[in-house]
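ok, trying the design again with the full structure, not the truncated one.
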C-alpha cells in the first residue's frame, strides 16, 4: 500500500464511505485511503442505529439536517433499489397525548412542509386506517416516506462499490496524531494532500489536533432498543411520540425494521466513556474523568434540562417502565413479548462547552489541508449521500 494519497478519510462509517463515493463520482482517478481502527466498516453508530430513513420534518429550515434529509431519503431508497437491498416502506405516525402536544404536531407539519417533506396532519380515524393499534389524542402526523433499511448491508454495499472503484481501505489502523503533511497511525505514517475526519465518537479529538473544534466536546449517549419477539403483526408502522424539540432525541418509539420486526427505543442514557457499550468495554480512564466532569457540570447547572433528561433516561433501565412508555402509543401490546435487547449504540453528541447546549446540527470545520465532520448524528445516515456531495464540492475538492 502506498503511503502517499490525495485524500485520507479517517473513519469508515456511513459519512466517510459516502464522501469517498462522492469524490470518486467527480474524480474517478482520485487516490483515496480510508482508515479505521476497527476490523470492518461501520462498526459503530452507522451499523448500530435504528435503520430508519427519516423524512425530514423534525428540523428547522435553516439547518443542514433540513437541507439534506428529504433528498437523502430518496437517494438511499434509489441506491437500495439499484443494489437489490431491502427497503420497508412502512411509513410513520407521530402521535399526541394531550392538547399541548397537538400544537407541537402542527409545528412538525410546518417544518416538514418548509423542508419539502411529504407530511400531513390526520385525525384519529384516519390514523387507525394506517395502524389499527395506534392510540393518539385527536390528531396524528402521517409521514408516508419514512422507511427502514439494514444499515450494515447498505454500508457493506458502498464499501464494495468503493473497492471496485479503486479506493484503498486499511482496517485495524488507529489514528495516533497529526504529522507534517499527513497522519500517524498504528500502521505507520501516511501522507495526504487532504485529511478528511469522519471519526464519529473521536471526531472532536482529531479536529482539535488540527486546530479545529476547540469550542466543542463529544458527550456520548447510549441507545438501546428492546425487541418484540411475540410476532411481527401487532404493529404495522413506525409510531413515534411528539418529541421535545429543545433537544435532539426523539423519545421511545416503535420501529418496524426492514424485516418487519418490531422494536421499541431507543434510550438516550448518558454514557461514561466514548465506547461505553457494556460495563467495561473499551474502558479508558482519561475519558471517564473528562466525560464525568462534563456531565457533572451539566447535572449541577441542569443545562438544557440535562438533570431531568439523565434521571428520565436512567429509569429506562427498568424494563417495565421502558415498555410502559411505548404502551401509551398503542391500544394493546403484550409486555411479555419484549424479550431481548439489541446491541447498544452510542450517539456522538456534540456539546458547546461555552453555552453548555447540545449542538442540534452537523458541524463542518477545516481548511485547505483538512476537513472535519463533527456531530454526524441522526439523521446523518439518511442525509449521507447529498450531505457528502455538498461537503465534497464545497469543502474538499481543490486543485491537488
Amino acid at each position: 500500500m502506498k503511503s502517499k494519497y490525495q485524500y485520507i478519510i479517517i473513519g469508515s462509517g456511513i459519512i466517510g464511505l459516502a464522501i469517498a463515493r462522492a469524490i470518486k463520482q467527480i474524480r474517478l482517478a482520485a487516490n483515496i485511503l480510508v482508515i479505521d481502527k476497527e476490523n470492518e466498516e461501520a462498526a459503530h453508530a452507522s451499523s448500530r442505529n435504528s435503520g430508519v430513513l427519516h423524512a425530514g420534518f423534525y428540523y428547522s429550515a435553516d439547518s443542514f439536517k433540513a437541507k439534506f434529509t428529504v433528498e437523502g431519503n430518496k437517494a438511499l431508497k434509489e441506491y437500495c433499489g439499484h443494489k437489490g437491498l431491502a427497503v420497508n416502506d412502512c411509513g410513520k405516525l407521530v402521535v399526541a397525548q394531550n392538547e399541548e402536544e397537538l400544537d407541537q404536531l402542527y409545528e412538525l407539519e410546518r417544518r416538514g412542509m418548509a423542508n419539502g417533506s411529504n407530511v400531513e396532519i390526520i385525525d384519529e380515524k384516519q390514523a387507525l386506517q394506517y395502524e389499527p393499534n395506534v392510540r393518539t389524542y385527536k390528531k396524528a402526523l402521517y409521514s408516508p416516506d419514512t422507511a427502514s433499511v439494514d444499515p450494515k448491508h447498505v454500508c457493506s454495499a458502498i464499501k464494495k462499490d468503493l473497492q471496485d472503484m479503486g479506493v484503498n481501505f486499511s482496517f485495524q489502523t488507529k489514528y495516533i496524531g497529526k504529522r507534517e503533511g499527513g497522519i500517524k497511525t498504528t500502521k505507520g505514517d501516511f501522507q495526504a494532500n487532504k485529511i478528511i475526519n469522519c471519526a464519529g465518537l473521536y471526531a472532536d479529538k482529531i479536529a482539535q489536533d488540527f486546530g479545529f473544534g476547540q469550542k466543542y466536546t463529544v458527550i456520548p449517549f447510549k441507545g438501546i432498543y428492546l425487541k418484540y419477539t411475540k410476532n411481527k403483526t401487532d404493529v404495522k408502522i413506525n409510531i413515534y411520540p411528539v418529541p421535545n424539540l429543545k433537544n435532539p432525541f426523539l423519545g421511545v418509539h416503535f420501529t418496524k425494521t426492514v424485516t418487519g420486526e418490531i422494536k421499541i427505543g431507543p434510550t438516550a442514557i448518558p454514557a461514561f466513556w466514548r465506547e461505553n457499550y457494556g460495563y467495561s468495554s473499551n474502558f479508558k480512564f482519561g475519558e471517564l474523568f473528562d466525560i464525568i466532569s462534563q456531565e457533572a457540570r451539566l447535572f449541577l447547572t441542569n443545562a438544557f434540562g440535562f438533570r431531568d433528561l439523565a434521571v428520565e433516561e436512567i429509569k429506562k433501565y427498568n424494563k417495565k417502565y421502558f415498555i410502559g412508555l411505548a404502551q401509551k402509543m398503542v391500544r394493546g401490546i403484550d409486555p411479555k413479548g419484549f424479550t431481548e435487547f439489541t446491541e447498544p449504540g452510542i450517539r456522538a453528541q456534540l456539546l458547546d462547552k461555552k453555552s453548555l447546549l447540545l449542538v442540534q446540527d452537523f458541524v463542518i470545520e477545516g481548511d485547505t489541508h483538512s476537513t472535519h465532520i463533527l456531530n454526524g448524528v441522526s439523521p446523518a445516515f439518511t442525509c449521507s449521500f447529498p450531505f457528502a456531495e455538498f461537503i465534497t464540492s464545497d469543502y474538499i475538492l481543490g486543485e491537488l
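Keeping the full-length input from now on. Residues 86 and 149 are 6 Å apart (CA to CA).
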